Amino acid sequence: MTADAASVPVGGAGGPEAGGPGKEGPADRGPRARTATAYPRYVAGKVAGAAVSLLAVLVTSFFLFRLIPGDPVKFMTGGRQVSAEQLAAYREEFGLDLPLWQQFADYCGKALTGDLGTSYQFNAPVVDRIGEALPNTLLLTGTAFVLYTALGILLGTRSAWRHGRLGDRISTGLALTLYSLPSFWLGLLLIVTLSVGIGPLPGLFPTGGMESGGEQGFAYVLDVAHHLVLPVVTLVAVEYGQTLLVTRSALLDEMGSDYLTTARAKGLRDDLVRRRHAVPNALLPTVTLIFINLGRTVAGVILVETVFSWPGLGGLFYQALSVPDLPLVQGLFFVFAAAVIVMNTLADLLYPLFDPRVGR
Phi and psi for 199 in degrees, rounded to 5? Predict the structure, then answer.
């Protein structure tokens, strides 16, 4: 071997530039580049999936509700005797005389511009009717959402940390019992016992509605809060059990982990180990459930709003189904489904904040 050959670096010609300490080589840049581009690809995939789901909902909402029996044109006549020419004029006015494919094309074209049609029974834009009822639904279901989420996480955490004890058995059993109850049945039971009254016990709360009427200022706020009690109690009683059970199950899976044993060995108190270490790592399934429930908050709970005559989106949906008011039903269905899809997608996008392994 010559001296010149022996002097050539092991890394080959230009070794320091290719892989030496002076610069990063391809092998060094690869993992970082993959990590830097993984999350944007993850986001793009989730957003694309949400867009496809929304398109599927748009198609489903049109064809599904055409299976409902009933003639909306006859409803619009109010039961009056009308001639065939008048019925044909109504159908032409609302586009019901067009072929189904053309109705679907018109519906999709308008929906993509934010126009969900005109309600048959209210003779008003569907978007306006939804906008009027949405604040009432958000007040009812939003209040219940905050209460049953906080209650479910708190009791689920305590139940898991003391699993097998009497308190855990009572809490879990009560949650399962209430979660299995039909919400409308529980609502009717509360109306009978706390609104109508039983025997010498007078009714304490209104039987339905959102307000008594005639109140202003702070008295109006108290009146609405008085009407809000029973429907909120119904929703909290039925819904908190799901959050409790999911939180409890996720935390039980974490409790056998080595890092918790190490934290206890360092002398940390049990409540500190639970709050700082166990609960944050067990929140991923609960976060999913919270965002799904948050999407359902927009939809409201149709049966509860109907039982308590609450003037929200749920009650409006039930009213539209009875006609059937096709544009209003389709619009509400699309809004309900879109809220759940958007919230579920948002939960997916936030997962990496709780677990950095997600999205890589």
Answer: 60, -125
